[in-house]
Amino acid sequence: MASSRRGSKKRRRDKNKETEGVVEAFMDESDWWQELSERLTTTGKINTDNEEEKFKSFFRVSRKTFDYICSLVKPDLSSRPLSVIVTVEGRVLTVEKQVAIALRRLASGESQHNVGESFDVGQSTVSQVTWKFVEAMEERGMHHLKWPDTNEMKEIKSKFEMIQGLPNCCGAIDTTHILMRLPSVEASNIWQDSEENYSMILQAIVDSEMRFRDILTGWPGSINDHRILKNSGFFRQCECGQKLNGSVKELEDGVQIREYIVGDGAYPLLPWLLTPYHGEDLSPPRIEFNAKHHGTRLVAERAMARLKGTWRIIDGVMWRPDKHKLPRIILVCCMLHNIIIDEGDKLCGDVPLSHHHDSGYKQQVSQFADANAQTLREQLSNYLSQKGT
Question: Which run of H or E residues covers position 355?
């Protein structure tokens, strides 16, 4: 028995030494930003002495938002054995450094090799850390990407009306292409879009503050916007009255306007989705409606441009992405986009204030027009025209 007790004590001492080593590793890694910041200054990669600006330029989020994201994913990133992820020098990665690596990969779109060099880790570590982060965000961050409740929707509708005067508008819809370079064995025509690029589609409904409220991704680039919409859960929910089913707004002339979203001419004209008038010889009220409609839906186009400008892994052409993982990466980029808005971060200075997110793509046109939706659009057109006189 005495021998057994001595063995137990020895195991406890060994375990304590291991724990001490882990604590030392975390202490060693706690100054990772200071080391990285000095390296960025020395190499001239970022030309500013302001630490907050330097941090935000490198990771696309403020230090405050970075700390919040760390707190969000910490339960998942620290739950596995600590010895799994280490630096080239054999030091254990803290949660903060894991988040930093993942954010840099998503924000820069740089190769895993280049990101690894910035943090003294190997390419496989960058891959592993980034995917762990994506999984953790899916688990912990979905409350940042959700359909608004009644009170939120009331505020959203009020803000949309302030933009161009459209009453009871709940959102704007748009799609963008995530470009890919595929190996020849995977390059089937289904992924080739109208501009002969290989791409994956992201469809999003955006609120008045450019926050993503509903997204659908994973569809091949060859599928047009109308068809993607019709195959979405959002379409089914709207058709059966589960969404855009809130309060009706009565206009001054007694006309009642239901809740709706706005989209460009690629979408069908539906009672809950209003699109612009087609044609050249339009009446003045219809021309005015189209102008106000365009000004309102720009919020979605700008949100897409801001998404790609901030999270550059989905901008440009992705090299041979895993098409099963890519939709989840896109989802997390949309979550991070929303978190930046929710945390009150200002837009990075190098993100263009543009609404161009699909350069080179021609405007799609849907010919479908629901009769009730045509009546609603005409009523809104007349209302806006009379209001402007």
Answer: none
